[in-house]
Amino acid sequence: MNKTKYIAMSILLVAAVLFIPAMLKTAAAEMGALPAPAIQAAGFHLKIDRQVIRLIQSVDAQNAPTDVFRRASLDVAGGKIRVVVEALEVSGTRSVSAMMVRQRITAAGGQVELAYENLYQSLIPLDAVEQVAASPFVKRVRLPFHPILHEVTSEGVNRIGADYLTDIPPFHAGRKVKVGVLDAAFKGYRSLLGSELPSQVTAQSFRADGNLENPYGNETYDVHGTACAEIIYDLMPDAEFFLTNINTDVEHHAAVSWLIQNQVDVISCSLGWTNAGAGDGTGPICYDVERVHSAGIFWANAAGNEATDHWEGTFNDPDSDGWHNFSGSTQVLSFTVNAYTPVFLYMNWDDWGTWTGMDYTGSTQDYDLYLYIKYGATWFPVDSSQQIQNGNQWPTEEIVDGWYSSSGQTWGVAIRKKSASRSVKLEIFFSGNNSAVEFNVPEGSLTIPADSPYAIAAGSTGAFGDGYHYYSSRGPTSDGRIKPDFMAPSGVSTASYGSLGFYGTSASAPHMAGVIALLLGKTPYSDQQILNILQKRAVDLGPTGPDSQYGYGRVNLRE
Amino acid sequence: MQKRSHKLILLVTGMFLLAGLESALMPVQPRGGTRLEIKAGSTGLGFYGSYHLPSAAQLGNGTFGGMLSFQLGLGRHLGLEIAASYSQFKTTGSESGLQEGSLLRIPLQLSLKGRLPLGKLTIFLLGGAHYALNQFSLKDTITNNWSRAGFTVEEAVESGLGFQGGLGCEFAFSRSLALGFDARYLVAKGEGEFRMTDHKTGESASGPLSEIQLDQMVFSLGLIWYL
What we know:
Chain A is of the alpha/beta class.
């Protein structure tokens, strides 16, 4: 009995010798480090970090932190605060400290979530933090440190001047804006939720295979929609997002109906179609845009990247051999293609008939398209498209078998009049060429539905300057309207494509959609007023006034 | 703030009770044997400090203000009061109503007072109508932020009619000086408008502000000089 008493007394003595100087030292050090008598006067213990005190003081009646502490709000929920309790650590006493700190946290109504060495990540009731800190075994109570999320913001946000508006609370906007992103694929979007995208989005694939994220198995294509959504989020982080992908015109109709049903306010589409309409705003794809417009929804579309991949002209056959002469006696238009790059050709002409709302009445002028490859000085025929046009068919020809060569080659196209009573105006879109096609005509190179009067078509300028991007498709439309409507930045940074890695009018369209969403979600302006503001604030580029290369100019929100 | 208003109510109630007690226990027979009582038909000027407690949360917490009154006696039991109170509320901001800012209210009140003299103490009921001058200013950070983006934002609360009713008491120190307390409830429906104007294009959008509730409870404590 005496021996036990002796041991107990010895332990107490040793503990006292070890703890008292350490406690005094800690207290003295902390008194010197906390120069905030006002807070101390409020009754908070010296060991509690100022950030914890400020956070507790900012909590409102609903136990929610005020906006000032939005970042710190990660650490307050349900009347408890997440803190790290640092136990006093003196050599050889960790187990005692651990036990005492745990006991104090539990007794105060808290719980230890995770312990590592002398650190106790705990949830503690707001009114019990001081009680925990009062323990002589507690050295410090602080907020947990949080990692910095390396967010990627498009340079276009600043270029447009939207950064002024993005952080301002709405002024009688009257709605939480909903944005639809219609694209090809959304690979990786889940991993960006809560950082580059909202924490929650609604996503649905309308592809037959239901593949939303990686239908192409190609990184460049698969992240395309995700990058577009990122840009819109940079501009309008308060928006609600609806993501949908398609691969066919039928899927397009279904996806558009879904977006209308979800009552989105603006749709961003960075897809383009060729041979899907007359280029005058009619056709099935443009009809979807018209449906969207009728529902009071904005549609922002990429103008297209086809300025150097486009030729158009009136059928010209001075030697009456039935073959079009592109220039002088030249009947084959040449273009160069890299090895293993597939060639796709789309030709149409101005004999669509009347658009009935469902279909065109059809063409009576029959023209055919021929593909050649050049070896030495000789053109060799590769393929042709010889659809019949006798009154019911669309005036289109396509060579889409994906011909390629194992070495870089010069390819050629030729046009033959098969059965026609007049010389039509033809246009050809090329895909696969590595530079501008011969006899290139940038004018009229818009892809569908950028030609729709109800679509806001966005062309491309730089992220740091207003230089025109050579590939950006130009108007006018086939019925003579000015397009694109605006220019917007591309060559911008996204998490999906990396630093300054997202080029093309595909990047411009979401900037356009984002700006519209921003004005819709922040201001009380009507749709028409928003268009007026965008037109009048745009930075005019090229010839004075709207033109078919730059539209109204580069979209701009700066005064 | 609520605690402060409770304290004020308790203080005023306590004074009221003390005054009543004193009045009941000590029927006043001052020098010359004349009963001390505010002279019927006399006019008076009142200077009050006031505490204004809005009924709607959007007007924020209670605020201190002031009130100036002119009273005209119409008989032993009847009087007319013209009063103007002043208060400035800090609005908390709502999506469709007033955003954050300050609302200055000056209700010009005309009230009929029913008075019951009880020696030094006079108890009264009042009721009447008022026309409130309202002036609303958006918080500077809101206007500045929008201004940097090239927009002017404004919100205005229209001045308008309302009604008030209440009760109170006056405790006479002498024939010309009394301590007055009253509690009155002012009912007023607020109407207002917001407007945003684009500097560059002149495009302007406006609309009515909804949910503006201007009712307030006013507690006043002050001195009245009877002329």
